Amino acid sequence: KEPDYKFRLIAHARDGNETLQHSSNIDLDIRVVESHKKAPQFLPRNLEPISIRENYSDFDATLIRLEAISNINDNPDLLFELLPGRTEQTNKGNTFRLESTKSTADIKLSKRLDYESNTEYTLIVRVQNKYNLAAETVVNIEILDVNDNIPVFREMKKGSVLENEPPGVPVMQVRAIDADGTSAHNQVTYYLNNYKDLFAIDKDTGNITTLKVFDREAEDTYNVKVIAIDNSPSALFKSGEPNKGEQDFRIEIADKNDNPPHFTQAVYVANSIPEDANINALVTEVEAKDMDTASPVVYSIIAGNTDNSFYIEGTTGKIRVAKQLDYETITEYNLTVRAFDGVYDDNATVKIFIENVNDNPPVFEEFEKNPTIEEEKLFDGCITTVKAYDPDIKDRSADQHIAYFIVKEDQQPLIGIDKSGCMTLKKPLDRDEPDGFPMWTVIVMARDEDGSPNALRELVMVNITLIDINDNAPFLDMQQPIVWYERERPGNITKLKARDYDSDKNGPPFKFRIDEETADAETIERFSIINGDLRAMVTFDREERKIYNIPIAISDNGEPTMTGTSTLTVVIGDVNDNPMEEGSSSIFVYSYKGKAPDTDIGRVYVRDPDDWDLPDKHFSWAGIGHPSFRLNPRNGMITMLSGAGNGSFLLKFSVTEESALIPRHKVDAFVNVTVKDIPEEAVTKSGSIRLYGITAEEFVTPDDNGVSKKDLFQARLATMLNNSIENIDVFTVLHSPHYNNKSLLDVRFSAHGSPYYAPEKLNTIVAQNSKELEHDLDISIMLINIDECLFEKLQHNSSCRSFLNISTVPYAVHTNTSSFVGVRAVVDPLYMCHVAEPIVCLNGGTPLGERCECPPGLEGPRCELLGIGFHGDGWAIMPPTGQACDDSHLGLELATQVSDALVFYSGPMIYNDKVGVQDFMALEVRNGKAVLHVDYGTGTVKLEQSAIKLNDGKNHRIDVYWTKTTIEMKVDNCGTSTCMSLTAPVGPNEFLNVNSPLQIGGTVIDLKDIAMRFGWAYEPVERGFVGCIRNMTINGNTYNLGMPALSRNADPGCDHGATKAFSFGFDSNFLVAILVCVAILLILLLAVVIHRRKRDDLYKDMDDIRENIINYEDEGGGEVDTGYDLNVLRRIYDAPPIDSKIAPATHQGR
């Protein structure tokens, strides 16, 4: 073959196991080289294995040196390699290393050796020359064992031997293991280190035996130390002695039953075991002591246990009730109990005395259980007399001590019963609906022991039948309204039907007539009643009158006769008998964020006296339709398509009408549609009111002058807010889905003032002007700031917070000539609290993940300005708490020097007898101390702390906690009773329900008038706060105190005058000292000025220099002016004093 030709072979090897044979393959490459090229050769060496002790540790010494020749005359260089194998024996872990120089290679140790892990190594060394030809040699290394392991005891068991056994009894066997690999080093012998007079050990087997007789009562355990020694000098220590290990073993002396048990008492007594004791109830416990521990004592009852009334727990000696006891049968038991340890026993007596208890409820005797009386009359004497006795009292002639009660609470004001069982009437009973019953079922309770807390009871029913009297007038009982179509000829309209709550003998047959005393003349003329039928006397025209409310007098057949008047509504049905005329209408649409979907916004309007004629009309576009709107030709409904933008659209339609009475004709109709996009901010920052007694249609329908109540409300808002009407939006008019009541109307509004006004500002101003609004618009305001959690337990019995649910699907209110399509913004109750507000950075802050990076001076978590100051004549409006929680926390810090002031007030801003919610919380400083008043709507409580004075000008912290059952106030985090106050609210209300804005530092309302109207037991102080309030939080959310939406004479940030001084804890004396120092400085300054006037020339030079500097840039300056900013120098001279830059608080922008 040619040089470099390769033979590729596969070598196969298998073992000789016939049943489970294993095999392996390997690929072999044999390369053909030129004949003159020769492989290198190792020089001859001693092939005997190299022997090394396992504790050999000279890593620099050469274990063996190998020499080789390259067989290339001009190139003697060689490459040596120590080949790693697949096992530790072939140097897989690099225990040996190879160092080579030219033609020699040294094998050295690189890791420590361990005979017990590996006893020999087979190393393969390869050498390679320039031609990549190689030779290999094998080096065998033998590891020699040394004594480098100490005997170790593997099992830590304990031994045991019975007491009183003869010497020589085996106790236990111990065993130690020596990990050395050869018998020359790992043979172990055993010796005792202590108690050699008590125990012996076999040195070869480790068996321990006794040398004496043991008594457990003298000593029950021994800790025996055993030493294990191997059989050669230690390689670990230099003493020349073998390795030695030791271990303590516990040997216990086991007990023998050689002592009898003894009861601790000869007689046990159990007194006053009640006869109604529960099964398994504990009676008493006996105990027998036995000096032997190996023989447990077992207890049993061997005599005196009549009817097996008791049992004893065999291991504990506890005696328990096994059967129901009866004092009337057996009053005393004498039990004999036994304690037995398997060999010996002992007996004791147990005396058990049974106690009589009230275990039999009262038993009713026969009495009149079905009395009959007349309704609506008081009954003289006893209706019936209930009789019962106590079976526990054997003498029936003795006082049975029975107390009687009426069970049903709603019957207790009507019916009474005394101790003798005499049942009497307190008020007359009613037989008739809706509140009465023909038969009153009265449940009477009889309790023994005069009704004591432990008394037993029994119930009995007394059925009182009422004799009917004719005390109810009949009334109409029929479906309303009745429809009678116009153009119908006179005839019967309907059969009249009536109902009477009295019995049949005082009810039908009924007589009907039109009540001419209350009916108008037109009704009397056009209707009549004949034999119970309502009859039309004329032909009606709906265009003249659509509805008749007919008063009908109905008389019953009772004695005496009762007559009542009911109203029957008759609607004149429409017949299309009038031609239509051209009409025009307007539709206003608010599109939330411009994302309204396809929405029905209103119908095409034409003037037509007929109003039930829609099926006779057909609607179409007059010309080409508008791409943003769709028309329904059958009913004239206009649909605004998604994507319709802002603007006004004049739409023109053609309407065709034809009926049996009207020939086919066509008119035009014009609809002016105005679409306005409203941003999210306007809705989320909106104010709200809830009206009652008005529908959405009535609110948006224009009057004869073309102005609706909605338009008037918008105009009044503009006037109250001192804003243009274009900046006011009344964008929501709807009936809340939470109430099936169309007389409740929710209205939402916003005002743009760059940015939008805050809700608390809008609601406060509306509250201040609520009476004028009601008068001018002829409306009734039920709520300002709609809150579904305000009425306790109306929605839920636990925590509640209101949530504004905003939908892009509009809410449409349709009328004839105008339609309003507003934002569907509904307040929903959420039954949860303590929801952290979303991370929205305020006051120019920048969001960074879950936090805000704030400008200097804004320290709140959302860049709130945390402080606000007052001077005694101001106030600030903050958002309401907005939640009624199972547990709440409000915290704040304050600094003041006044003794009496209002810190904050949270409660109603106006009196509204329609709502009936009067909850409030007020924190005050009274006589320098913190005083808190809280009212959950059912009574005011007062909390006061007397230890800490707040009017020292220093910072103080106040925390208020309230739950359903407790109210707590804490000052300066103090935990003692002197600086904290705790009380319970006045029930039954359980929540603080407030929807009005929080007022801080003072109040915008007349608290005296509010307190008087609501009838509060306490009137909050109205004196304004002087000082600084900071760090106010409610349930973890921080108030932006320094940026109130509405305020008067407030100091944002506590930056001015006295409020700042208070925040640093200055007192009045210190302020006087400062003023004196300032006066002295002014006198000195005046003297200096007088002195410096004598140096006018110098000042003139200074002025010239200033003038030159100021005008330098105007005259061109130098060639390198750009290196300086001369405006800085100008500002230094021209700027006003620094104090003048701080605007008054009421003028600062927000």
UniProtKB/TrEMBL annotation:
Natural source organism: Bracon brevicornis
Cellular compartments annotated: Cell membrane
Domain Laminin G: 865-1054
GO molecular function per UniProt: beta-catenin binding; cadherin binding; calcium ion binding
Spans traversing the lipid bilayer: 1070-1090
One Gene Ontology CC term in the entry: catenin complex
Membrane topology summary: Single-pass type I membrane protein
SMART domains tied to this protein: CA, LamG
Residues of the Cadherin domain: 57-153, 153-263, 272-364, 365-476, 486-588
Protein name (record): DE-cadherin
InterPro entries cross-referenced by the UniProt entry: Cadherin, Cadherin-like_dom, Cadherin-like_sf, Cadherin_CS, ConA-like_dom_sf, EGF, Laminin_G, Shg-like_Ig-like
Key words, A-Z: Calcium, Cell adhesion, Disulfide bond, EGF-like domain, Glycoprotein, Membrane, Repeat, Signal, Transmembrane, Transmembrane helix
Entries under Gene3D superfamilies matching the protein: 2.60.120.200, Cadherins
Stored PROSITE patterns: CADHERIN_1, CADHERIN_2, EGF_1, LAM_G_DOMAIN
GO biological-process terms attached to the record: adherens junction organization; animal organ development; calcium-dependent cell-cell adhesion via plasma membrane cell adhesion molecules; cell migration; cell morphogenesis; cell-cell adhesion mediated by cadherin; cell-cell junction assembly; developmental growth
Pfam family, one: Cadherin
